[in-house]
Each structure stands twice: as structure tokens, then as C-alpha cells.
Amino acid sequence: MTSLVSETKIFIATCSKPPIGSPWKRVVVTAARAADGWDVHVERFTRTQSFTDPVDAYGNDAEKVLELELSHGWGQVHIQTPESDSVILQRLKSGNRTSTILRKPPSRKEWEQFTIGHRTKATLLTTDADAHLLQVLDLASADGMILAAMADKFRQVNHLCAQWMPQLRTLAASLKGRPMSIVDAGCGKAYMSLALVYLLRREGIAAKLHGIDTNPHVIEHCRNAASELGMDNTTFTCGTIGSLAEPVSCDVVIALHACDTATDDALALALRMQAAVMIIAPCCHHYVQQQLRSPSVPDEARALLDDGITRERLGDLLTDTVRRDVLRSFGYDAHLEEFIALEHTQKNVLLRAVRVNMPERDQHRWADRVRHTCKAWGIQPRICELVSLPTGSTT
């Protein structure tokens, strides 16, 4: 099938009529010939959202990416090139997949202005330019190929780096030459924070990194990785997030999948250190889930407690909503969003926060909303026990 694009310099492949169970309604693969193979962009669509999928795990082989999409069983794939259009119709009958190819005259007339609208490679990690980093982080094998078991982790790290590097460049400019201070709370193997320091250094931006985790084995791994990467301005300590005394202030706090109330510990730490930026991916929310009781929740919502899965998701939503609004009450522009497709990780919620010049009146309104939410649902999230909400007039 990929012979349909082997002779062209540029193509757009639109995959539609998804197979049963697919989370996607449509996938669009765009590619153009480049000096090192192909320049590729993959965008996946649900009914209401779109997600850009970094494909560096496949190298620069657009034909391989297209072949992979075809193997997922899309009912129709429309390939447009300057030379012609091809429509691939796939049908599954008696367990066997059959394909029919229809050739048509080219439907797209304007190709001169066509560009691959995705990330600048210099701000992302690639298997060619960054092989040593990826090997040290245990994401790639000795020959530079992304390990199959680590492909999802590679996409997550790559995607988060692409999201946050513009913000960190802006932050670095405001520091007027001072090294950026980064704390990774519950760092694990510090994939994200080490990658960010690496990318910042590549752009001439100095950064200090301190990671903390309760697992001594991952701390030893992080120390060895930082040493092998020549990152002298990094430290890692073994302990709880709440026990961290140094540094007393920082610019960026990262907490990716710190379990349950460890996320609250990270948020409280970031508030105490007055971090300018927070990159938080919450993980498991048992603390609030266990507090949900029929007598204390709104009458209209009691049906949500009947099944474990709805109780669990309600607890997730309430926990992260309160966390977001607590940050807003301290003057942060805070939002919850999906940061990568569900097929790559079930833990795909990101709480992003940037400190802004918010009027005290607005901060007090957010604090009042936190109190109202907790009272309405009969809950006391851990973050509300760790920090004192602002008090004062909202008029």
C-alpha cells in the first residue's frame, strides 16, 4: 500500500471510518520529503479534540507510519498527492481484511504553500540528534532505536517538552541571566526534568535541577544519569516531598504522577517556594474518593456513588478541580487539560499553572469557591489541609 506514496515528494493521508472500539474518529498523516528522509506530522481527532502525535519513535519513515495506520483497520484512507489521489477501502469479512484501491485525478490543486504544520525539531528530542540522552534515560537501545516498551514514555516526554519549552524560554528571559531553578517532586527516573535541562542547556539557558523521591534505587539512577550527561548543576535526594527543605525557592516545580496526596505535597511545596511555573500530572485520588458519602453529596449526584467506577471518576474530578482553584486563589493562571492521547497513558490529565498578577479580590473569590465546593460535596482534599486559603473581602 505504501507504494502509493513512494514516488511522491509530499502527501496527505486522511484515515476515516474507524474500526470498532477506536478512540479516534479521524487521523490525518501529512508528510514531505526532507534531507534525512521524511518530515512527518500525525494529528488524531476525537469528536471534540485533536492531538498531535510525535512520531520520532518511527524515525523519519512516513511510509512506515502510513503502513501502521493502515494496519489499524480504518475503513477508508484517502491519500492525496500532487500527482493523483488514491482511496483505499478496507473491509473485514469472516476475519479476513480485504482492500480495494481507487485511483483518481488529484483533488488538491495548491501544493506550493503546503507546509508540515508541527513542531520545530530543535526543541524536541529525536533519535538521531539526541541518541545519547535517550540511551542514558533508558528510552533507547544501544543502536539508538526507541525501545518498544518505552515508546509511550518517549511520546509523553517529547510532547510535554514541546508544550513547555516556549513557556520556559519566556521565563528564562525574565531571570536576566540567573540559572533557572527546577524542582522535580516525586521525580522517579526524572525523564521529564532531565530532558528539559538538556534542552535548555542546548539553547544556552542555564538551569539547576533538584529531584526528590522516596525510592533510593531511582535516586541512584538519576544521579548516575546526570553524571553521564555532564549535568553538574543537579542534585537528587531520597525522602518525602514534604521533607524537602532546600531550595527555599524555585522557578519551576514538576510533579508527574506523584501518587495520591503526594501531588498535594508537591503543590504545597510549589506554593511555599512561590514557583513561577507548575507542571503537574496528578495520579490516583483515593483521599477524596474515600470521603464521598451519600448523605453529604448533593441529592442529584448520589447516583454517581452507586458504582465504583463512577465514584472513582467523581473523586478524580473533584480532587483536581479543587487543586486547580486553590492555585487560582494564590494568584496562578491554572487549568486542567489532557496532555496526550489515552492510548499512550491513562494518566493523561495535566494541571498547568503560571503565576500571574491577579488582583486580591479575584484570589479571594477563588478561595470562596474552594470552600463552597468542599462544603457542597462534604470533602476535605489534602491540599486544603496543607495550605491556608486567602481570606478577605470579595467586593
The largest pleated sheet is described as: 7 strands, antiparallel
CA-based shape: globular
> Helix-strand pattern, N to C?
EEEEHEEEHHEHEHEEHEHHEEHH
- CATH uppermost class of the largest domain: Alpha Beta
Number of domains: 2
Helix content: 25-40%
Strand content: 25-35%
Question: What would CATH call the architecture of the largest domain?
Answer: 3-Layer(aba) Sandwich
Strand order of the largest sheet: 4-3-2-1-5-6-7
Q: Any idea what the radius of gyration is?
A: 24 Å
- The assembly state of the depicted protein chains is single chain
CATH topology of the largest domain: Rossmann fold
Count, helices: 10
**Uncertain ranges:** 117-123, 341-346
> What is the rounded distance between the termini?
66 Å
How would you describe the overall organization of this protein?
Helices cover 32% and strands 25% of the residues. The protein is an alpha/beta fold and 395 residues long. A 7-stranded antiparallel β-sheet has the order 4-3-2-1-5-6-7, covered by helices on one side. A 7-stranded mixed β-sheet has the order 10-9-8-11-12-14-13, sandwiched between helices. The longest helix is centred in the middle third of the chain and has 24 residues, at 151-174. Mean pLDDT is 86; it is low at 117-123 and 341-346.
